[in-house]
Amino acid sequence: MSSGSPIQPKSVSTKNSTIDENLGLLVKVFGPVTAIPDDSSYVINDGSGDVLVFIDGYIASQSGVPIPKLKVGDKLSAIGLSGAFSEGTRIRVRDTRELIKTDALIPVTGVQLNKNSATVSIGNPDITLAATVLPANATIASVIWSSNNEAIAKVTNGVVSIVGLGTTTINAETLDGGFRASAIINVIPLQPNVRADIGAKIIVGIDTTMEYNIDELGWTPYVAATPPNLSGEHNVKVRVKATGSVLAGQIKNLYFSTAAPALTGFTWALGSALGTKATAVPAGTLKYAVGPVNSLYQPAVGELATDYNKVLVANADIFVSPSQHIYIVSVDGNNKIIGWTDVAVTNSNIITPPTLVKWDFEDSTTNASSGLKKAAAKPISVVGPTGAFSYPTTSGSKAVSTSGWDGSGDRYWLASFDASGYSYIQVTSKQTSSGTGPKEFKLQYSLDGTSWSNVPNAAITITTASTFVSLDNATLPASANNQSTLYVRWLLASSNAVNGTLIATTGTSRLDDVVVTGILLRSAPNVSADDLNKAVTGIDSTMEYNINNAGWITYNSATPPDLNGNYSVQVRVSAMGDVLAGLSKTLTFTANAQSPAAPNVTADDVNNVILGIDATMEYSIDSGIWVTYNASSAPDLSGNHTVQVRVKANGAVPAGQSTTLTFTANGQSPAAPNVTADDVNNIIVGINSTMEYSIDGGAWTAYNASAAPDLSGSHSVQVRVKANGAIPAGQSTLLIFTPNEIAVTGVTLTPTTIALIVGGTQTILATVAPVNATNQAIIWTSNNLNVATVDNNGKVTAVGAGTATITAAAADGGKKATSDITVSGSLDSVRATLTGSSHVIAGGSFDLAYGLSNVTSNVYAQDITFTYDQNQVEFIAADSVNNQFQIVDQQLKPGQIRFIAASYGATDIRNGDLLVLHWKTKSSITELTNTAINLSNLRITEGDGGATNVIGVSHSLQIFASVDKAALSAAIKDAQAKYASAVEGTVIGQYPAGTKAVLLLAITSAQAVYDNQAVAQSEVDQAVAALNNAVLTFTSSVIKREPGDLNSDGVIDIVDLAIAGKYYGKMSTDPNWDTYKIADVNNDGKVDIVDLAFISRKILSSK
After folding, report:
1. What predicted TM-score, i.e. pTM, was given to this entire model?
2. What is the CATH number of domain 746-824?
């Protein structure tokens, strides 16, 4: 992205967008589409005149935003270049984001970022910045992203990629209005590669680019001649020092104390699936890490075990290669080290991983030579180098070789292969180069051949020409596991040649014995889905499951997963030690149909049968097995039994809920009781607590006089004597109850007061009490039909101004309720509008549009008064927007303008803008000022003899002081030119390292002042002075030749005297004076004895 700001469009009317003064400018217009000449053009008109918007063949950036499809009448906002063509004038759109279909043009008022700053290091993930354009409904919400220094960080659509060390600013600038928000990005050095040597009490790896902090006493630059005293117990921090514009780096924490004692008691054996395992370990909590020899050193007692991230237990596999060590610590409850050992396991106790693919080049091709995955492997190739392949032999082994490594862009050896089904992918290779060939490579991997990541600890440095350097067992990260296509490359890491010069075109790189190994992942487990019972068959506690990709959970038979629903379930063997989790098997579960409810069956204890049971059901007697019901062989239920009945399972529909029935040994059942129905009072006469009843075929309920049944309405009721021990329930008496008439007791209305404008309607809701009254009918009336009418549904219509009462009377009994209606004239709801610019510079002009809204009838005359602060703004003039609405007269007083205006004839001017008022801010304003234009009085009339006062409105205005930034702009351009032309280095005419970064910070600060719209003149002047001082300091730092040092080697000696002697007698008139004049030390136009004497004195004074 460019670091510059986008050109801001000029907002103009459609008529003025293509007048001569705007041709060639970027303009913004808005208005309805009035014509569509062809598929490439729209004609829009905001009321001032037509303009042609051309949208084909000139789209500079489609931006992923489609061109809007419009019809006549749609409103369009367009930004484009105003210009002429063979048929007239038009606006040519440059970007699809600047062509927007919208009902209203809402300008941008600002922009915000989700972060103001971030501190990162090279290699960290990208930073994502999100820009919020204000207001949220702004029409043109696009932003332009830029970086002030792309050598430090680049930005694309808000995603910031780290490039180099230093500080830069990422900007988001709105396409509309040019509002800007910024975030400071600090890129600092990585954590230094240093360690604590407990025995020698020194920091290994520290150098003069670093600083240290002992026990939080402050940072001290490291000086080799005076290293820190680290005797005793100390917490030490080490980081790379700040330099120029680069802040101090990430911190490495070290701990000095007594060395941790050695751990003993280990025995080792081949791993069960990979690597090795400890069959015996000492007591305590043990942790370990695996790495190359000397990658970890003996720690101190009490040091935190942050470098040891795995727990060591007996008989758990540890992945380790023959060349690697296992570093083990014992820790206390606070994860502090109390013991340590460094284990080099013998090869006989390490499982050798199988070879997936190998390239040995012995057949003088780059094809794979062997391995389990040889068939799928691609030939090794190069990207970037231009030389042909050759296959030289070294010590009896062929290697592939090529030249042309001096080109630009990424250059690398490339291999790809199949790693599916395997984990712990390791790459081993050998490399060498000729003296002028590449010195440094690094191994990277990719899952798609496009996005590359570094393989940890896999840098290759060739120190001696034609001597191979081995990369042993470089382990790829876990993301490389189980990939059907995996890419690795040996990427050229610098332009340095082995012999210390730059890589030459003829310099060669050789690659040999590339071997890829891996550990076979355990196969998917033998499990299956029992979809009926919603269980995983075959799963056990050695496995884990993942439901709908929500995360892996270890299986526990005591808490099996709930799989009743639609689920995709993955199952695999869990990881154990360094043995990774196995391949997964995917099972599918579907949602079963809802299990049926308990069936409506009852026990006929007299006849010992189940009433309501059928062939779709099954039963269980006294918790026995479930038996499908068969009417021809019904169960024998004589005696005492508990019987459960449910609907049978049917395909995916499980068995239903059960109903429990009780059968007892029968005695003589009582006769039907002597009870009668009192249908008036809705009670059963003669019933007592020895009886039970069933209403409308429902369940039998024991009678309780304190909770007698509600028998209002239509009901069929059976009454019988309850069962008593072995005596079954008696015969039943059938009673019939019929509904009673329920009278209306009251009426309520919602709402009870209503305000309407003439012509408006609203429905009143009537509620009858009680809710179960038999007759719910309502009779509606109005006491003033000239004000409001009401229909049979309670809908009120406003007829004329005034008040009325609406009455709702119940048809049954005449109970009443009322609602009061107030009807207003058609102008009472009118509102005034005042819109226009809200930001103006001092001495600038601006317009405000006055209009009306919510107008429902014609307005024929208006009395309008505006007030304002005459010390801040000045009224210029006012124009009518519509020729049927005119200013009849106006009166201007200090701080006030009053208009008398009228509409002529059969006008239909209602809602919308009526006047445009022209204003100008006072040029004498010298600081940011807030003011307002107020509509303080407004009276309008329909012409019927009455007038209506309308609530006034206010329009706020922010006035920016006029600031002269010309000097600051010139100073920035001058500084930028000097910065661009300057070169850092050590020779004459160049600048010392770091001076350009200091100048760039000064330029950035000055640019920020220039971009600030609210800045004061004093701040601008200070910025000019500061930048000029920075430029002066910068130009003064240029490296200059010392007089007499004719060969610019930094020393004045007899070599310089010899040069002067060679050019002795030469003068400025000689043809080759430009060559000779270096010997004219005193600049008098000739080389003579004066110059030689000066050099001689310098030689003598230096001894």
Report:
1. 0.45
2. 2.60.40.1080
